[in-house]
Amino acid sequence: MKLSISTCLFLLLGSATALDKIIVKGSKFFNSKTGSEFFVKGIAYQPEKGDPDPGNQDPLADPVGCSRDAPRMKELGVNVIRVYQTDSKKNHDKCVKAFADNGIYLMLDIATSSNAIVRNHPYWDTDLFTAFRNKIDAFSGYDNVLGFIAGNEVANDVATTPSAAFVKAAIRDIKGYLKANKLQFPVGYASNDEPSIRDQLKDYFVCGSDQEAMADFYGINLYTWCSNDMTFETSGYQKVVQEYTGYNIPVLLSEYGCIAQRPRSFGDTKALFSDDMTSVFSGGFMYMYTQEPNDYGIVDVSYGNSDLTKLAEYSIFGDVLNKVSPNGVSMSSYKFSANNVNCPSASDSWKVNPNTLPPTPSTQACDCMRNSLSCNLAVADFSKINTEDGDKVLDDICASIDCGPISYDTSKGVYGAFQFCGREAKYSWALDAYYKSQNKAAGSCGKSILTGSVVSSPSVSDLSTCAKKATDIGTPSTNNGSSTSNGDKDSNPNSSSSSSSSSSDKSPNSGNSSSQVHILSSSMAGLSVFLVTLVTLF
């Protein structure tokens, strides 16, 4: 039987899975096509057992595992997974498709264990911004990416509050990079809800006049519903709702699921999607899917193995999640007016200046600076320098000379002109400053493990010109690709959204040029071949 061309096209196009774009308007998520409010019925997903590359964990690079888990997630009623660690160098096509085919979106943490803003010694530098751009490019071509999380519990006490400034700077620059590449994804932050800094944190990420520096959503990792006889009131959930009522951006439980009593009855899940919370909260992620040493899992699996064992709480969670039916509002009828939020003032308990953020990293500025030095770091393999050892030498140098250009003070809002440079550039600057402090004496170009090389005629004579160099916002990432899927075009350019305006015009897989056009997705490529065949036949 011959099918008409139109019928064949319909059948082919119908086989391609593309989920509707989820956007932010005011303090809620919405489906950009249907206009209905979107609630995150989520679960944390980070299988670790049997991972062949534990130093670069990436469950979305395990097609066997994803094909095993995605249908079970759908069975549970899950519509979004939160994935903490992924490797931008690996391919994710099959995994992402497995979840898309089951109607599941991805919320991705950008940082990894090796590339993150470190709470005790925070920085936002050229190397880290490159790693973050690589992550964006690795996943920006997939239709079912809901958004990105720029930091998870980075500032978790008074002593680590300086890190908040660098997370906010990262959010600003990630959003700037997305905007420059015409991509639309919300970028948020996940907090541990530490009482001593709770109010400052939640205000800090939505305060100020620069919309691009504000988080697009805010997550709370909340573990207070710790027995099965707790209620909305006794668990503290009622208080949390009160604290975030009127918040300017969507609020999620980025983690929840206390295990003080087992098996959990998931009363917190029922509450989260009830009328008690849905006017303020947009859902959340139950922690967690797989059984790991921390004992939070509801299934037992191993990397690359299709076997799956459902644990006692699997059916309990699924029964609860499948029965919830949150009442939302339509985007067309939703009216929102943002509240003016003052940035918290710097104090002994909040060590961040309210008016100044760390500047956007600039590789060109750092290269320019290095080209102005008379003494440069000369290490054949910089990666072999232990970070801790190198930093000790740097601290030793800076104890005797002024290292202001590569230092910062978040309380005062003071950031040196080159504090955003990577370690290699900072070490070079410090060696040069030390060399000059010793009047360029023979043998003084170097310190301990930081070997230096004298430069007789630096190519840059005026260091002040370096500050005028372009930032890395418009610099393509170094990602050589993991995604071959089509980018998500702006599905609703006229809607109000706190994230950057959308529409990708580059391929995240080639990843080496922000001006490159997206290659066809597998379904569209198949369509092209199919059309040629039809023309030949008919």
TrEMBL record:
This is 1,3-beta-glucanosyltransferase. Residues 373-468 form the X8 domain. GO terms for cellular component: plasma membrane; side of membrane. Residues 474-516 are annotated as: Disordered. Its EC number is 2.4.1.-. Residues 1-18 form the signal peptide. Belongs to the glycosyl hydrolase 72 family. It is found in: Cell envelope; Cell membrane; Membrane. Residues 474-515 have a biased composition (Low complexity). One of its GO terms (biological process) is fungal-type cell wall (1->3)-beta-D-glucan biosynthetic process. It is a lipid-anchor; GPI-anchor. GO terms for molecular function: 1,3-beta-glucanosyltransferase activity.
